[in-house]
Amino acid sequence: MAEKTTYIGTAVVRSDALEKVTGAARYAGDLKFDRMLYVKLLRGKYAHARLVRVDASKARKLPGVKAVVTGTDFPYRMGLYLVDRTPYAVEKVRYYGEPVAGVAAVSPEVAEEALGLIEVEYEELPPVLDLLEAIKPGSPLVHPELHEYEHVPAIFPVPHTNISNHFKIRKGDVEKGFAEADLIVEDTYYVPHIQHSPLEPHAAVALYDREGKLTIWASSQSPFAMRKILSQSLRWPMNRIRVIGPYVGGGFGGKAGLNVEATLVPLAMKAVGHPVKLVCTREEEFRDTFVRQGMWCRLKTGVKRNGRITAQEFEMYWDGGAYTEYGVNVTRAAGYSSAGVYDIPNMKTDSYCVYTNKPVGGPLRGFGHGENHWAIEQHMDQIAHRLGMDPVEFRMINLQREGSTNATGQVLHNVGIGKCLEEAARLIGWTKVTGPGKIEPGVKKVRAKGIACMTKAPAMPNDAASTAIVKLNDDGTVVLNISAQELGQGAFTVLSQICAEELGVRYEDIRIYPVDTDHGAYEWQTVASRITYSCGRAVMEAARDAKRQLCDHASRYFGVPAGDVDVADGRVFVKGDPSRRVPVATLALGATLPDFSGYGGPIVGRGKFIPEGIVAMDAETGQSPKPVANWTYGAQAVEIELDLELGKIEVKKVAAVYDAGRVINPVTAAAQVEGGVVQGLSIGLFEEMKFDERGRLLNPSYVDYKIATAAEIPEMLVSFVEVPQEDGPYGARGIGEHVMVPTPPAIANALFHAAGVRVKRLPMTSESVRWALKQE
Amino acid sequence: MLHNIRVRVNGEWVEACVPSHRRLLDFLREDLDLIGAKEGCGGGECGACTVLVNGEPINSCLVLAVEADGAEVLTVEGLGDAKDLDPVQEAFVQNSALQCGYCIPGMVMSAKALLIRNPNPTRDEVVEAISGNLCRCTGYARIVDAIMQAAQAADAAGPAPAGRAAGHAPAAEVSRAGGE
Amino acid sequence: MLLPFDYVRARSREEAVDLALRAGADGKFLAGGTDLLVRMHDRQLRPQMVIDLKGVSGLQGVSCCDGEGLVIGAATPLNRLIRDEAVRSKYGLLAEAAHTVGSLQIRNRASLGGNISNASPAADTAPALLLYEAEIVTWGASGRREIPVGEFFKGPGATALAEGEFVSQIRLPVLKERSYGVYLKLGRTSAVDLAIASVAALALEGGEVRIALGAVAPTPIRVKEAEAILRSRKDEGAIREAAAAARRRAAPISDIRASKEYRLEMTEVLAARAIEQALAGLAAGGR
Ligand SMILES: Cc1cc2nc3c(=O)[nH]c(=O)nc-3n(C[C@H](O)[C@H](O)[C@H](O)COP(=O)(O)OP(=O)(O)OC[C@H]3O[C@@H](n4cnc5c(N)ncnc54)[C@H](O)[C@@H]3O)c2cc1C
Ligand code: FES
Ligand code: FES
């Protein structure tokens, strides 16, 4: 069992709490500078059209307008995994709302007036709106130039088609597996486009100074990745680009990579010396920043009468939208996790990312797993039902366990899913169920339970690394220099806890400052639920390094061997001799020895981390002994009440259990789960981006894109299992995304138990449930 | 068209000249640098811009600055600072009732308004008071807990709290286990 | 951000009418602004002049004249209405319906006059006003008019108001009998949503049951056919028949919130429930 700790596993108060409850916390949109200009973007009016003429000459003449740019002024392609996207449309618009031109002016009013003066002539092209039509030969192409685009090696575009990535799993022999099966169950499932909808819309300020240096302040999960993408695309050295990241008002993946910030760069370069600021409207946030891709899939599973799964075939088609620079990797991640939490000997998976003339698909909390688990977890219940087995019992038979292999053939160890499932079932009060309950005539409301599992690994390149620097101030307080972003998940709190634990100082004495790529320690991105795990390890190492230096100073100061001193609670002391102790401050800048000579010097500890031993998956089979850094497992059970007449589902209770490896802060961890559960509930019941036949988004506002309000919250029972992650700090692994993945399928499974119907298309609105009930 | 207005903001009278189309939200954020109130939608749907006008919570994105002429406006900045938190703010801190924080100034103001009007709200009344404040991060449960606690703190003489109604586990249960 | 316009605070009814007539199509009345400013923010509307009615005399507050029912100033915010003792005790259905509008913040601004002048088919206070047989008092170029609420709504976004005319008061006639009203609104989320369908039912001591529907026709509508069925019988079968009659009267559209078919079905479900609950409420003592 873990050794005694001071801060690990402790519910310290969030380090950002005071700033946030007093309104002092600053977000990108709160920034204001002298000479600042306001940016508005002119957005395309067609889903797919050729730009025949873009004439901004009148706008340029409007008093107060300082810069106007169009696509041809800045035709650089950018992208994290596939370089397919320009900040402004060049030659063509590929989704309704794509930026066509940008204006920077002395006031937002003038900027908007200028937009009205820009003349655009379009030649409409046939829009590619139907995912399954888009993959047919002869479909119009969204990117005829796909074969020319640069991409990372892990991506497999199919030239001269709309398929920007085709990911494959070939494991065992599926034909043989299906031949061995007593029962084969096949079904299709669909998830629509949804939006992250953080409460803070994207906001950024960019300044291009006379020296030729670009500084961007952005609401971003990825300051370093943003710098990298810009540097690669513009062929600028990185030291000409600086990204500063204040607090982020919610990200959920939507603020990963490079987003609207890119549109500011050419404006800033034209308005030299003027910071140019863009704050997205809610409409722009919904339509013109990343969205979660829609996905249609077919899932076929063979199973023995005794409940053992023999084979699985899984085809997923992702509605990637107009640019899939980031979305291609979602497709990949959902492919390699396509076994879910199950041990399936024979597998064939094909996951296709498909271009359409829809908003740009990107990462959203769960990164493909909310989508594939929507199918997998309902499918498992369907099979259990067909076999006459209880869904928990059926899952138990097939769960991954010590020595199992997953879709990639990786042999698994320390698998916590069994414990999670057991605990979730216990918390909800699960009793054996083999099918829908009987509904007595006249009954208008029924209650039922459902359960679902999940697993996910961080989807990241193998060089996704973290660094940390621990600097001691003269007074013994500490600057923890890391570049993880505080998105609300509690990163600053947990990383401070780790630092305090290792260094022996008080948690309150540690400060983390906003990310600044010029001064900050390197961090890949705050995505993939990887910060506690990866940055946590870097902080651990940096704090240990600092402590070693402190103990070295102390050893000279006290004249004892370094092994005889220790640091705790902000004091450095000789072990076993409480009288010989000094505050950290005494030794922070070096030790003053008895003869008044100095020793050591200011303490700076450094640490770094990169997940080791990750092996690229085989291009044809997707097989790898270790394809990812780690897997986090979890299970959720729900209890719903269904109004049979209205079709309305009310989620009454949710039990959520995750294997966090080690819980660093029980309150922020539980809070993370609660937030995820409610987001999952919201996606399950309400959320869908709706488009008309011309590809226009019909609901770019909270009026018609509903998210859960306080009136929807269920009773939540949160619990953790701790099966340590070998290379995680204190055994910890990430849970941030995982917590919203199983909620929708768990609700769907409860719906089946309530009334014997399935809604295989998200969301489970009252209307869709009502129709399902009527068909029954 | 310009208007001379006098507004009492966080206890101090402010005189300003504003154009007709200036929203109260912009007046606070841009002219007075009170950035606590946030814009989350600009359409009355999210509540991030909630401030109190004459003691009642309103969406400052849907009020013109000129309409606030003569009014008393309270923003989160007028509530308390780090040294002297309002009991509502204190309860949010203690309950970890915040994540990204963007909705929080609006939430805190809605909570404050509720407790001014109704010092002993039921859980349902708390839910109603904040259902016009969207939060994408927290799942709301801790925010409701915090407001209930603030009410109890302010009403220490009143009856003992009736325990946590449908809500959530305060901190999670943890079971340590070896792998399978 | 809003785009520039001129704001004028009218001090009298005459001034309001005068300003509105002069501005013509470029002018808009402002009460709580929870609808107007949203449309301006979304760039659906761009009036050049916004005429604030909140300072016009007689437009604020609830007054109760003995034996005369209730007079509500058109610019009265819904929360004031909801908290008003006279409204709660005698016209509970209106308080209940108003309570379902938007959020607390919205109701602190949103006015009753604005709610009906909007003429949204889903305006939540409209079914209650229909059942209380309210009179809409207006002021315009030709002076004062009283329009029965049933004649006020002309279609989505269209009212009986003439150019330059505004609603000054809503008069609720006296209700001598005890009554009990129920307003059922089906939204997508449980709070802060527009109705997919809504039904108001008002059971009166004398045996009458009044029924009105929201969001399922071009205007809010009262369903006399359903009421007739319940005049003599109030058993389960009659309730079912009345609900079916309500469904027959409904003429909804399919939109982003729901399909026409779902709205039709929900009209029937909600109507049956509302009638049942109203009768039960009356039996339990009413208001
Ligand atoms: C977040 C949100 C939620 C909402 N939820 C609901 C809901 O659930 N149910 C619902 O019914 N509505 C809802 N609404 C719409 C709106 O709040 C209500 O219709 C409200 O009652 C409008 O009143 P107001 O005073 O704010 O109107 P304003 O915005 O001031 O005016 C609305 C319209 O009526 C005109 N007008 C206003 N007063 C008068 C008058 N006295 N005479 C003539 N014309 C006048 C204006 O010119 C304008 O065209 C919601 C709005 C928002 C922003
Ligand atoms: S910004 Fe005012 S309600 Fe959203
Ligand atoms: S804490 Fe992020 S929106 Fe509420």
Tell me about this structure.
The complex is a heterotrimer of chains A (776), B (180) and C (287). Chain A has 776 residues and is of the alpha+beta class. Helices cover 25% and strands 24% of the residues of chain A. Chain A contains 18 helices and 29 strands. In chain A, α10 (369-387) packs across α11 (391-398), α10 runs parallel beside α17 and α16 (666-685) packs across α17. Chain A is globular, with a radius of gyration of 27 Å. Chain B is α+β, with helices and mostly antiparallel strands and 180 residues long. Chain B has 2 domains: 2-78, Ubiquitin-like (UB roll); 87-157, DNA polymerase, domain 1. Chain B contains 5 helices and 6 strands. Chain B has helices spanning 24-31, 87-94, 104-117, 123-130, 141-154; strands at residues 2-9, 12-19, 50-53, 56-59, 72-74, 173-176. Chain B has a 5-stranded mixed beta sheet, covered by helices on one side. In chain B, a hairpin with a 2-residue loop joins β1 and β2. In chain B, α2 (87-94) crosses α5 (141-154) and α4 crosses α5 (141-154). With 287 residues, chain C is of the alpha+beta class. In chain C, strands 4-5-10-6-7 form a 5-stranded antiparallel beta sheet. A 4-stranded antiparallel beta sheet of chain C has the order 11-12-13-14. The chains are: A alpha+beta (776), B alpha+beta (180), C alpha+beta (287). Chains in contact: A-B, A-C, B-C. Chains A and B meet through α1, α12, α16 and β29 of A and α2, α3, α4, α5 and β6 of B. One FE2/S2 (inorganic) cluster binds next to loops of chain B.
The assigned CATH architecture of the largest domain in chain C is 2-Layer Sandwich
Strand content of chain A: 15-25%
Question: What is the spatial order of strands in the main beta sheet of chain A?
Answer: 3-5-1-12-9-10-11-20
Let me know the CATH homologous superfamily of the largest domain in chain A: Aldehyde oxidase/xanthine dehydrogenase, molybdopterin binding domain
The biggest sheet of chain C amounts to: 5 strands, antiparallel
CATH top-level class of the largest domain in chain A: Alpha Beta
User: Major sheet of chain C: order of its strands?
Assistant: 4-5-10-6-7
Determine the N-to-C terminus distance of chain A. 53 Å
Structural class of chain C: alpha+beta
Arithmetic mean of pLDDT of chain C: 97
Task: Calculate the mean pLDDT score of chain A and round it.
Answer: 97
| Basic shape of chain C | globular
**What proportion of the residues of chain C form beta strands (DSSP E)?**
15-25%
Q: Can you tell me the CATH topology of the largest domain in chain A? A: Aldehyde Oxidoreductase, domain 4
Helix fraction of chain A, binned, reads 25-40%
Poorly predicted ranges of chain A (pLDDT <50, ≥5 residues)?
none
Largest interface: A-B, 83 and 70 residues
State the major sheet of chain A. 8 strands, mixed
